[in-house]
Amino acid sequence: MLSSEGKDESFFISVKKGGKARDFIMRKVCASDMKHNLAEMKSHVLEEISKVSTSEELDSVRVRYLGRKGEISVLLKHIGSLAPEERPEFGAAVNALREQVADAISRRKDELDKLALEEILHRDTIDISLPGEVYEIGGLHPLTKAMREVASVFSSLGFAAYESREAETDEMNFVKLNIAPGHPARDMQETFYLSDNTLMRTHTSPGQIRGMLSLKGKLPVRFIVPGRVYRRDPTDASHHPVFHQVEGLAVDIDVTFKELRGVLSAFMKRFFGQEVSTRLRPSYFPFTEPSCEVDISCMFCKGKGCSVCGGSGYLEVAGAGMVHPRVLVNGGYDPGKVTGFAFGFGLDRLAMLKYGIDDIRLLYGNDRRFLSQFRGL
Amino acid sequence: MRVPWTWLNEYTDLRWDPQEAAHRLTMAGINVEGLSYEKLEISSVVSAKVLDVKPHPRKPGQQIGILDAGTEKLQIVSGAPGFKKGNIALVVRPGGTLPGGVRIEPRELDGVVSQGMAVCANELLTGQPPRPHEDIILLPPGTALGIPAQELFELDDWVMELELTVNYSHCLGILGVAMEASALAKTPLVLPEVLEKWNWAGAYGSLEPESHNDGEPEIQINLPDPELCPRYVGKLVEDVRFAYSPVNIERRLYLAGQRPLNLIVDATNYVMLETGQPLHAFDAGKISGKAIAVRSSRPGEVLVTLDGEERELPERTIVIADASGPVAVAGIMGGKATEITGATRKVLVESAYFEPLLVRLASQKLKLRTEAALRFEKGVDPTAQAAAAERAAALIAGLSGGMPVSGYAETNHLQIEPKRIMLHMKTVERVLGTKFSPETCREILEAINFQVEEGGTTVPEGTSILVTVPPRRVDIQAEVDLIEEVARHYGYGNLGIGDLSRVVPGGITDPHKLCVEKIRDLLVSLGGMECVTNSLVGPGDLACLGWNSGDPRGNPVRLRNPLSSQESVLRTSLIPGLMKVASANMRSGIPGMFIWEIGRVFFPSAELPIEAGQIGFASYGVLKPETWLGGPDESGFYRMKGVISSLMDLLGAFNIEYLPRAGMPFHPGRSARIVANMSTIGEIGELHPVCLKHLDIPLPVTASWLSLDGLMSAVKPRDYKAVSRFMPVERDLAVIVPEGVPGGDVIDSIRKTGKHLVSVILFDIWRKPPVPPDHKSLAIRLVYQPQDRTLTEEELAEDRQRIMKRLKEDYDAVLRA
After folding, report:
1. Which end of chain A, N or C, is surrounded by fewer C-beta atoms within 10 Å?
2. Could you tell me the sign of the dihedral formed by the alpha carbons of A359, A364, A365, A369, in that order?
3. Interchain CB distance below 8 Å, A369 and B590
4. CB neighbours (10 Å) of residue B243?
5. Contacts of B517 in chain A (CB under 8 A)
6. B273 and B377 share a domain?
7. Is B504 within the bounds of a domain?
8. Which residues have a Cβ under 8 Å from the Cβ of B528 and sit 6 or more positions away?
9. Residue of B169, B255, B201, B184 whose CA lies nearest to B26
10. To which H or E segment does residue B52 belong?
């Protein structure tokens, strides 16, 4: 609280601090005394500011000294009691004091705000070790994942995807593919029949004929046929009566066996990895001539020979060859003008090799514990 | 087919190790599936000379011999006729073993110790006792003593297991394999004398017999139907006596997978394995009527085959018949009645060409897959019958000590025109992508016994060659077949790899297919686990879902020849498959799952079944367990409806309605038809408790299906709309309607009646006071956001009135105070 009595040559300023009053005696003596007293006041006020611990207290200190009726403001009222020549110096000193105090309050305010924020942050701290809110994302079946990779590689090699029928005529499944009734190749495929002349396709190869016919002689022909196929094989670790194949067909004026090698080798590298090498081994299919089996170096033993590849270092993964002239004719193309290559492989086997699955039944059992392992990328 | 290494090398000296040979053959298309070293499990079997014999004092017929086994003298007891002083026998020393783990120890025979055993071929090769009339093995005089059996006979050998594709029927004889191998290894091919004489390996096939025997053949061969059997050679071998084959021949037959029987039958089998031409030996003395005919079976005819089975002969089976009826199933198996026995004195060796397809059908119907049938059905060399018969007769004569061979009969309706194909170098390059010279092609083709000439006058010199195809190569029909021969002997791996500069897509881009892949991704992001289930199901699976003949789903396409009734019809819905998955996972203790599948379903139609794309969904249990943050996420009707709505929204399929439905397989009060453009595109619902019971599924399951075509037809391209710059305004509305009013209808009605609404969300349903009984209060949050302004309070109030008026009229709705 402030009380000042304007008597004699001296006046008092009472400052109450913490309930204790202390008087500064401002004597009307000389400027140097005054300066001394102002300095004393400054150190006292600054100390007081530094001890303030809340912004409310700080605000009351500000009002006490710097308010319109604050102690420092009041000092200026007494300027008249000084000698005129001393007045400017006193005025400047008081203003300087005022600025210093204001500055100190402002700095203290920043400090207190910072402390208060820290306090809030501390108070709001959470246990980051607790589990978060998990989203249940589903997953694609490994066969779909493998199929997409296959389609994407072949797409980059210029092959579109064509879906063909699963129920077929004997004509499309066999005859048009150069497998006449009684042909020994029919023995290789145990067929589910629907009627005398309709059946469940035993391979995706009839897609070659349907695809070519739908293109009506246009060139180039370049597509894959993915899909389900059916064979009368009892289920075991490597057989399932329903499984998946991917057929590929390219027909143009200059398609060669050499390009077939290139395409298959590029596919195998991109699907299984750069270290995988591909070899073609002569074989027989009624709808291709020359025909070959497609072997890849075993990725499990790097070609050294292991139980997966039966010690040979190679895995048989596909069949291929140059499209038989009669098949080209059946698809509406002139074998005198165009050549073609075709290939086909079991998607299940490819997926099993890629993901290291040792039993085909797992693919069709859809056990959650199995499927969820393929959820990621 | 099994190819013993030593046997193969008899025809061409390969100078490769068996592994290398297996690899080279495989890479030329002769697929060697396995290569194994077959070791006869014997020990301490050595040559020993009988120094002296004396009769066993107490056992009549048994001799006690003292034998010199090189390093030791052995006392051995034997009753064999060949156990005579001066003969060199093969003996098992005490402690020695025979196949099958038979261990020979010194043993006492009625007071006389036998230190080992003199063995016959059957004991040596199989460990089994002697066959009838089988003598011990006798070695040539002068054979050194104490020499192990392995050094005296070819007992241990590598065996290649060939897995031949159907076009390589010429390799169904070891000579055929040898021919391929000699071409690959560039080593000469050496034929057995008789086959060389008959020019068996020639490009025009084996020679035709020059002349028949003078006079009446002893057995007349009649071919009434040349379609069944165009060529039949019968070779008579007289004065035969019963014997077993030499050890080396028996061992070769075992290694090749054929059980030796007796010298005559073994000779026919040996020649079959050698040349690929199946032969059969009849006891000529048992053929009645001095004539045989090759004809089609007659209804009701039966034959007891060599294996002792009485078989009814299926229709269109080719049979060999004598005056009494069938004596053999042609090309498959002989009959018991004319079998070679100990009493056989005269043999008829049959070497014929039977119609491949008929042999195949008969073999399938009789379920008799014999080595002979396997070869006939693939097609044998149509010229080699006489050569093979001669070879077998010579073998029989040679092995049995030079018995006279006479009699010869042949009937031949086959006119073998040499097949000649022009091979153009241009075509070779067009197909293979690599240039070939006529010389390279000639070299390759001649090495496998094709005959090659210059391309003739019609084409420029050096551009083509004229190739004569040996008749044994029944697989070679056209120019491309020759190209394959060139390519596989040149090496597929040497053909170079083409560049991949071709990027013009040549196919059909199916937008439908692209959309299906997007749907898959959306379903994954919505938490669904994709399944792939069998498209073959059982009628029971459909019946469990309550689909009977009244429902198209109860009328599946049936397989004619299913493996089992559980996989005997084509699925008419994806739901049965998903139910099995759900059930199996429940039983594995999985607390909950949301699964789906995209695949085809099938319905009967005139010719081929209708195939339709479908998405199936199923879910059960707790999809996400309760955590400290909340939950659990439970499956159920609304959960699945939400997924489907999200899917529709993401695809841009709007104006989807859910309408009440009835019938299996869903709970009548908890299921809906999913309708777009007035047609049903799917269903959703909780499974009917009766279905769950039939399926033996313990937990409630929600399922749904959507037709892919139906879904696609509902997808509309989305137009971009400008984003409003004005703040949205929210207003809540609580309306009380009678319980029977579908809440969805109220929401739809609000959506259609209100103006500038961007969202209408039902956030609460209240059925307690102050809402009157049999009523419900629907709390709905409306969000308004016009393009051009912020709505005023007056406008909002006006809209609310408009909505309430509509709801009052249509649903007797009142605003909740």
Report:
1. C
2. positive
3. yes
4. 18
5. 148
6. yes
7. no
8. A138, B594, B595, B596, B617, B643
9. B184
10. strand B43-55
Which residue from A289, A180, A208, A342 is spatially nearest to B167, judged by alpha carbons?
Answer: A289
Report which residue type is found at B359. V
- State the pLDDT confidence band at B404, using cuts at 50, 70 and 90: low
Choose among B29, B502, B560: nearest Cβ to A158. B502
Domain A142-374: CATH superfamily is Bira Bifunctional Protein; Domain 2 (3.30.930.10)
Q: B30: domain range?
A: 2-39+156-190
According to the model, what pLDDT value does residue A22 have? 47
How near does any CA of chain A get to the CA of B662, in Å? 30
Beta carbons of A140 and B520 less than 8 Å apart: yes
Strand B279-283 vs strand B63-68: parallel, antiparallel, or unpaired? unpaired
- For A158, the closest of B360, B505, B628 (CB atoms) is B505
Q: At B530, which CATH number? A: 3.30.930.10
- Residue B487 has its nearest CB partner, among A195, A228, A290, at A290
Q: Give phi and psi for A313, each to the nearest 5.
A: 85, -5
Report, in this order, helix, strand and coil percent for chain A, each rounded to 5.
45, 25, 35
Residue B110 in any domain: the answer is yes
Does the CB of A211 have a partner CB in chain B at under 8 Å? yes
Number of domains in chain B: 6
Same domain, residue pair B256 and B405: yes
Query: pLDDT digits over B50-100, tens only?
Result: 999 999 999 888 999 999 999 999 999 999 999 999 999 999 999 999 999
Question: Would strands B302-304 and B310-312 be described as parallel, antiparallel, or unpaired?
Answer: antiparallel
B206 is a domain residue: no
Of A222, A242, A250, the CB nearest to B536: A242
- Binned at pLDDT 50, 70 and 90, residue A19 comes out as very low
- Residue A95's pLDDT band, with cuts at 50, 70 and 90, is confident
Chain A positions in Cβ-Cβ contact with residue B557 (cut-off 8 Å): 167, 194
Report the pLDDT averaged over residues B550-578: 94
Q: CB within 8 A of B620, min separation 6: which ones?
A: B582, B586, B592, B593, B635, B697, B699, B700, B701, B702
Task: Tell whether A67 lies on the interface with B, counting CB pairs under 8 A.
Answer: no
Same domain? For B144 and B244 the reply is no
- CATH number, position B314: 3.50.40.10
Residue B82 one-letter amino acid: G
Residues B359 and B301 in one domain: yes
What's the number of CA atoms in the CB half-sphere (13 Å) around residue B95? Answer: 2
Q: Do B493 and A280 touch (CB under 8 A)?
A: yes
What residue ranges of chain A are covered by domains with CATH 3.30.930.10?
142-374
Residue A157: alpha-carbon gap to chain centroid: 27
Partner-chain residue, chosen from B431, B502, B590, that has the shortest CB–CB distance to A368: B590
Q: Are residues B224 and B301 in the same domain?
A: yes
Q: Which of B367, B502, B555, B571 to mutate to test the interface with A (most CBs of A within 10 A)?
A: B502
Q: Is A291 on the interface with B (CB under 8 A)?
A: yes
Q: Examine the predicted complex and report whether its ipTM is higher than 0.95.
A: no
Shared domain check, B671 and B575: yes
Arithmetic mean of pLDDT, A138-158:
93
Same domain for B325 and B402? yes
For B479-505, write each residue's pLDDT tens digit: 999 999 999 999 999 988 877 766 555
Q: Are B355 and B332 in contact (CB under 8 A)?
A: no
- A149 touching chain B per CB within 8 A: no
- What CATH number has the domain bearing residue B171? 3.30.56.10
> Is there a domain that residue B203 lies in?
no
The pLDDT confidence band at residue A181, using thresholds 50, 70 and 90, is: confident
Look at residue A20 in the predicted model and tell me its pLDDT: 46
Residues B18 and B95 in one domain: no
d(CA A173, CA A195): 14
Cα-flanking dihedrals φ and ψ of residue B207, to 5°? -65, 150
